[in-house]
Amino acid sequence: MKPDLPEYSAPLDAEDRAGKPAIVCYPPETLPAVDLESLRTRRPDAEHIETVTVAPREAACVRVPAGGYFRIVSTEGPQVGDLNLWAADDFSERFYSGKTRALHGTHVSTGDRLWSTFPYLRSMATITDDTLDWYGFDADGGSVHDVIGTRCDPYTNRLLSGEDYHHCCHSNLTRAFADYSGIPLAEAEHYVHDVMNVFMCTGFLSATHQYFMKASPVRPGDYLEFHADIDLVVGLSACPGGDCGSEHSSDVAKCYPLTIEIYADDSARAGKMTSTARSVYDRSHGR
Hints:
Elements: H1 14-18, H2 36-42, E1 47-54, E2 59-64, E3 69-74, E4 81-87, E5 90-94, H3 97-104, E6 113-115, E7 123-130, E8 143-146, H4 154-161, H5 169-181, H6 185-188, E9 196-204, E10 211-214, E11 223-228, E12 232-238, E13 258-264, H7 266-269
Antiparallel strand pairs: 1-13, 2-12, 3-11, 3-13, 4-5, 4-9, 4-12, 6-7, 7-11, 8-9, 9-10
């Protein structure tokens, strides 16, 4: 955090230096357009093929075919989830929360895309429906579905509390991905990455700019739905923080299951729709 009492005095031109205009780093207007109307028009024809229940303080992984859809649903009570995505044909291509944040902002909703890591940098999934889009930003600056938090993990918990806790989202996703992929646990852990916090309400405190959480507004029946822009493995952890209105990384909070509903689109399987292409940058890096 920035010091309350700086060691150095402000220079005479401090006001001028600090008064420069803010420039959006990555103007979204230059991104390829999302044909949201088309994705929504095709949605009713998609066939429900599977529903996976994610138990409280656990995680699950499931494959979603390119052109299909997956819906994360609150079923029994207010519960947030930590989302990971991998390309089904190459687990080294995974969701890149930092670049997604740079392109779409701290909190995402309908029409935003989840982008993959370098050197691939392509859209992995597009949000097509969000029953919590009414929330916007509250008086604290909080909103839902953030791409700013990392994930609760046993290492930070040990650092701050001196105790071991094995059902943090990082550990949940590690176990689930190891089980799904058959990769040994220690190796599988390296594939687990920064998340999209589904349904979680977060922001930055105005005074200190510290990351905060507050009770999620999600209720049973709310959902967030995505179009799979490529063949995906979707990993979801039902966070031990429950609605994250008090604490996480413990068994104190009341937790509920989440479900992942998977829908396949016949037209996509018939080859009428292609996946998004990986970056065509030549990777020479000036050499």
